[in-house]
Each structure stands twice: as C-alpha cells, then as structure tokens.
Amino acid sequence: MAFLQAVIEHGFLQHALIGGVLASIGCGIVGSYVVVRRIGFLAGGISHSVLGGMGAALYFGVEPLSGAVAAALLSALLIGWVSLRWREHEDTLIGALWAVGMAVGILFISRTPGYNVNLMSYLFGNILMVPERELWVMAAMDLLVVAAVVLFYRPFQAVAFDEEFARLRGVPVTGFYLLLLCMVALTVVLLIQVVGLILVIALLTLPAAIAAQYVHTLGRMMGLATLLGILFTVSGLALSYEPDLPAGATIILVAGLAYLLSTVGRGVWRGRRARLGTQGVRDG
Amino acid sequence: MNGQAVIELDRLGFSYGEAPVLEEVSLRVLAGEFIGVVGPNAGGKSTLLKLILGLLQPATGKIRVFGRAPSRARWEIGYVPQYPTFQRDFPISVEQTVLMGRLARHGLFGRYRREDMRAAERAMERTEVRELAGRQINTLSGGQLQRVLLARALACEPRMLILDEPTANIDQRLECDIFDLLKGFNRSMSILVVSHDIGFISRYVDRVACLNRTLICHKTEAIDGQTISELYGSDVRMVAHQHF
C-alpha cells in the first residue's frame, strides 16, 4: 500500500512503472522467439557486447543509449551473418563478442574523464532513474518491434520453426533471420534500462518460457509473456521499494521464482493426473 | 505429360572439402515417374536432394529441374524432410504446420487467404490427418507427424514430391500405409523418394537409383542379391567378418 501511495506521489516511480510496461512488451514478443528458436546464448552475447558501445559513446561524449543501440545492432548482424554462413563458429564468436564487448566498454569508461559514470547502473539497470525522454525512445522501439511482427508474423514463425522449409518456399530466410536478431538487439537495449545488461537474459526468456507451459501458439505465447513481464516488473518494483533493494535484481528474482514454481507445479499436477489416470483404468 | 524430364542431372559432382561425396552422377527422372534412391549411409543421398532443391551448388556438372535452375523451380516441389528437422516442442498446431506449404504464395504480409486454408484442408484430407488439425505437433505419434509433413508438402500443390527417408522413424505397418498413399499421389505427380531399404521400396517404385558416391539405375524387376551386394559390398563383408 505504501508503494501505491508512493507511486501517486513520485513522478520517478510512475516513470519506472511505465518503463517496466514498455520493456515487458518488447520482452514478451521477442522473448517468445528467443525461447522457441533457442537463441538465449546469442541474446546474452548481444546484451554484453552493448557495454562496448555505451563505453565508447560516453568517452566520445555521445548519448550512451545511441551507443548501446549501435553496438547491439552491429553485434546482432555480425553473429547472424556468421551463424548463417559458418554455423560451427557461431558459439565461439558469441563468446568472444560477449567478453570483448565488455572489455572495450570497461576500458573506455576507465578513460572517460570525471566520476559521473555509474557502471553499476549499466550492469544491473536503474529503472528508478529512467528519464521521460528515454520512455519515448522505448515506446518507439516497441512500436517498431510490434509493427514488424504484425506485418511478418507468418515468415517469422516459419523461419523460427523450420528454416530449411521456409527457404524452399521462397521466404528470404537470411533477411528475416537478421531482422529477427535486430529485434532481439533492440529489445535487449530496452531491457537494459530496466534490469541492466547482465540480467537481461532472465527477463527475455523467463516470461516466455513460463508462457510456453500454458499456451500453444506463438501469438498467445507473446501475449501471455508480455502480461507476465508486466507482472514481474511491477511486483518486483513494489517489493523492492520499501526495503530499498535494487529493483532490477528483485524483478529478476521474482521472475525466477515464478518460473521455478510454475515448472514444479506443472510437474506435480501432471504426475497426479497420470496417477489418477492409471487408477481409473485399474478401477474400470 | 509422360516422357518429359522433370529432373535432369548431368555428370554431377560434389564434395565437402577434400573427399568427394558425389561423382559423375547422371539421371533423368521423367514426368509421372515414381523413383527410389537407395544406398548406404553417407552414400550421398541427402546431398543429392539438397542439390536438386538448390540448397547446395554442384562443384561440377549440371542440374535442371522442370528445365530450370533448381532454385527457380523448387517452389513447384513438395519436400518432406527426414524427421525431425525442427523442435518438436514448438508451439504450433497441425493446421498451422500444413499451412506453411502456402507460405509466400501470395506475398509475405498479413494472413493466409481463404484459398490457402482450403488447400491445407484438402492436403490434410488426402493424408488422413484432417481430424488432427487442432492438435499440437508435440502430441503426435511418429506416423501422424509424417502424414502431417506429407500434407504440408501437398499443400504446396507441387508438380513433384521429394521425400527424404519418409519412414525412417515409424514401424513397418505404418510404412506400408505411407507408401500406399504415395502410390495414389503418383497418379498426378512425379515422386522421388530416398530410402535405405531397397527391398521394401522396390515393391512400390518404378525404378531404383542406387547411390554410393556414383549412381546406377535399375528397373525394379532387375533387383537381386547381386545388385544389393554390389551396392552395400563393404557392409556385407564387415558383417561376415564379425561372425568369425
């Protein structure tokens, strides 16, 4: 209740809530692709390489967010190109981009004059400090992602499901795969505002993974994952507020706990149903 | 339409790196034909299919499909991959899977059209999976899934079907069912089927092409122990060796 009161009183909390909702939209939609296509590691590589872009932007006095977008798109295209051409090198490249991106970022940040840089907020997010202008940028990125998915739902589904068959049917698979990875990149940047680049993977995959346990089309998975994302960010924010815990980490723990409970709960329920089923056969 | 070549392979060669996978492969598949390609594992069967579908480029020789380059003709081919080529737990229904055969038919924007839905329904009826339309693919048995993939290929309304080991993962009785279906489809389209089981498919196909790096064709009635041991020569010796 104290949290509700605080939301009404403080603009920064309202911004945080809006930021959480905006991030959840991107994460629900793109996270569903990441989960069904099993490219979580790839998304992790993109998100960590972002630090390089942010560091360079800071050093050269550019807006860090634009550095983040540039680095994310660049590494998405690089990984996508390599994975389509030389699949056997994909893993190595992702690992390299992951570490090299962070190293570059840290070097640039260490050379940036002044002490105004809060490295921790890039790594672990700072949802309480999202300025209004960034909310607009997040909304624009959401709009791009939603528009791409609405226009090209079928080819995206086909590329995620069965790349070879899609290619044989005349779908430009390379283009759509790279577009998909660019959407992953934009979403990662969206989420960095909320939970930071280290924790991004959890918010990208956990809501979609939970949704996949209950619904059976990609579209519904996206919808449910978005709702779950909103639930996790809002409740994480609320839980962290009074004890003054880091919001990003709390959000991730809420999501992780929900995933654990959902998975265990389903296992127990299925086991019981299976037992009841066999009993029914015995009685009959 | 009989007598016209649907696939022409002329002295085809292909290699992954150093080792040649295919050498001097020449073959003409005629319209309306039901042809089987058999051979040992790693004999180049899947590579040959990928070349015909234009997914790989030949190192030497020429391929024509319906008189065109493979990549320009493949939309007229219904392809059934050797299962599984995708994640079985993908959240997708049977109907949506079959509809993939209609992808890109009228552009990539938006939804499927009514004629696409009807073509998918017809395809599901022909392979007897209409009642499974709403089921998730991860709830299907191996035989059911194979019929769904066959329906997806038919939904392309192809001039030719190409199947890669369509019955590798299902039992013998269902295998006969699938080939009975294919025999029926053969009345309206050419069929090329890859198999490792020469004895079984020779009951259904008009002609068998034996592929072990290079290719020898036989009318089905000419297949005997001699042919099989020539084709699988090294394997047979290996088995004999184990008995000593």
From TrEMBL, chain A:
<feature type="transmembrane region" description="Helical">
    <location>
        <begin position="66"/>
        <end position="84"/>
    </location>
</feature>
<dbReference type="GO" id="GO:0055085">
    <property type="term" value="P:transmembrane transport"/>
</dbReference>
<dbReference type="InterPro" id="IPR001626">
    <property type="entry name" value="ABC_TroCD"/>
</dbReference>
<feature type="transmembrane region" description="Helical">
    <location>
        <begin position="12"/>
        <end position="34"/>
    </location>
</feature>
<comment type="similarity">
    <text>Belongs to the ABC-3 integral membrane protein family.</text>
</comment>
<feature type="transmembrane region" description="Helical">
    <location>
        <begin position="174"/>
        <end position="192"/>
    </location>
</feature>
<feature type="transmembrane region" description="Helical">
    <location>
        <begin position="247"/>
        <end position="269"/>
    </location>
</feature>
<dbReference type="Pfam" id="PF00950">
    <property type="entry name" value="ABC-3"/>
</dbReference>
<dbReference type="GO" id="GO:0010043">
    <property type="term" value="P:response to zinc ion"/>
</dbReference>
<protein>
    <recommendedName>
        <fullName>Metal ABC transporter permease</fullName>
    </recommendedName>
</protein>
<feature type="transmembrane region" description="Helical">
    <location>
        <begin position="222"/>
        <end position="241"/>
    </location>
</feature>
<keyword id="KW-0812">Transmembrane</keyword>
<dbReference type="GO" id="GO:0043190">
    <property type="term" value="C:ATP-binding cassette (ABC) transporter complex"/>
</dbReference>
<keyword id="KW-0813">Transport</keyword>
<feature type="transmembrane region" description="Helical">
    <location>
        <begin position="96"/>
        <end position="115"/>
    </location>
</feature>
<feature type="transmembrane region" description="Helical">
    <location>
        <begin position="198"/>
        <end position="215"/>
    </location>
</feature>
<feature type="transmembrane region" description="Helical">
    <location>
        <begin position="41"/>
        <end position="60"/>
    </location>
</feature>
<keyword id="KW-0472">Membrane</keyword>
<keyword id="KW-1133">Transmembrane helix</keyword>
<dbReference type="InterPro" id="IPR037294">
    <property type="entry name" value="ABC_BtuC-like"/>
</dbReference>
<feature type="transmembrane region" description="Helical">
    <location>
        <begin position="135"/>
        <end position="153"/>
    </location>
</feature>
TrEMBL record, chain B:
<dbReference type="InterPro" id="IPR003593">
    <property type="entry name" value="AAA+_ATPase"/>
</dbReference>
<keyword id="KW-0813">Transport</keyword>
<dbReference type="InterPro" id="IPR050153">
    <property type="entry name" value="Metal_Ion_Import_ABC"/>
</dbReference>
<keyword id="KW-0547">Nucleotide-binding</keyword>
<dbReference type="InterPro" id="IPR027417">
    <property type="entry name" value="P-loop_NTPase"/>
</dbReference>
<dbReference type="InterPro" id="IPR003439">
    <property type="entry name" value="ABC_transporter-like_ATP-bd"/>
</dbReference>
<dbReference type="InterPro" id="IPR017871">
    <property type="entry name" value="ABC_transporter-like_CS"/>
</dbReference>
<keyword id="KW-0067">ATP-binding</keyword>
<dbReference type="GO" id="GO:0005524">
    <property type="term" value="F:ATP binding"/>
</dbReference>
<comment type="similarity">
    <text>Belongs to the ABC transporter superfamily.</text>
</comment>
<feature type="domain" description="ABC transporter">
    <location>
        <begin position="7"/>
        <end position="238"/>
    </location>
</feature>
<protein>
    <submittedName>
        <fullName>ABC transporter</fullName>
    </submittedName>
</protein>
<dbReference type="GO" id="GO:0016887">
    <property type="term" value="F:ATP hydrolysis activity"/>
</dbReference>
<dbReference type="Pfam" id="PF00005">
    <property type="entry name" value="ABC_tran"/>
</dbReference>
